[in-house]
Specification:
239 residues; mainly beta; 2 domains; six-stranded antiparallel beta barrel; four-stranded antiparallel β-sheet; 4 helices; 10% helix; extended
Length: 239
């Protein structure tokens, strides 16, 4: 599979396997996706396929977003036509809500602009990697974010219970005195970052409804957009 798919996390549920055990799964609506651009090493310096998922109403789409997927009249297009420059291929679809790129190798099968990719790409895949944006928790302290214990709440303890403590080096460290070491656990923004969950088992693929069920949790809230691709994690061969 040269590329992956874009989709939307529907939510979590449980299904029953053939042996009667309950299996916790995440329901993902994957595709259909349109190929918007094909990056080449000669023109862009790298090879990739740009996909778009979902449809944005035209009244909410900017002119640049509409021009990215469809040929619209502009001064630049007329100037290029007068110079007899070949126009850039367009996908001829509605402006998508979610656009991402999948890096590919030169040996992978090339996709064409405007091609429609469906869940058929994942029909024979047993394990996938899912990439999403986790929930943003705002600014959090060290106790909530890093599970610090804090000071005791007994009599005589200074009212500094939830503080992170000193952050600089000890005075005996003459070479790095007073500087904060890299990786120091401190308070700050928690969440709202890209996370990849690797090697999730594909439990069921429902191609007519564009739904895939994977075993385990997927980053992001219900309704959040995700990227799905064949896993790159090497698994041990079963004896």
């Amino acid at each position: 599979m040269p590329v992956g798919l874009l989709g939307r996390k529907v939510g979590m549920t449980q299904i029953y396997g053939e042996d009667g055990r309950a299996i916790g799964v995440t329901v993902i609506e994957a595709g259909p996706c349109f190929v918007l651009q094909v990056r080449t090493a000669e023109r862009d310096g790298y090879t990739a396929v740009q996909l778009g998922y979902g449809e944005k109403p035209r009244r909410l789409a900017s002119r640049a977003e509409r021009g990215h997927v469809a040929a619209i009249s502009s001064k630049r297009s007329k100037a290029r036509a007068e110079l007899k420059i070949e126009p850039v291929a367009k996908a001829a679809c509605e402006p998508p809500r979610y656009i991402r790129e999948f890096r590919t190798d030169s040996s992978d099968a090339a996709c064409e602009v405007g091609q429609k990719l469906t869940l058929e790409l994942l029909a024979d895949v047993t394990h996938v990697d899912v990439i999403g944006l986790i929930k943003g928790r705002g600014t959090a302290g060290v106790m909530k974010q890093h599970n610090f214990h804090g000071l005791r709440a007994s009599h005589g303890v200074q009212r500094h219970h939830r503080a992170g403590g000193s952050i600089g080096s000890h005075g005996c460290d003459r070479g790095n005195s007073g500087k904060i070491k890299k990786g120091k656990r401190m308070a700050g923004v928690w969440g709202n970052e890209r996370v990849t969950v690797r090697n999730l088992k594909v439990v069921r693929v429902d191609q007519p409804n564009n739904v895939i069920l994977v075993y385990g949790a997927v980053p992001g809230p219900d309704g959040g957009h995700v990227m799905i691709k064949k896993t790159t994690k090497k698994r041990k061969a079963q004896a």
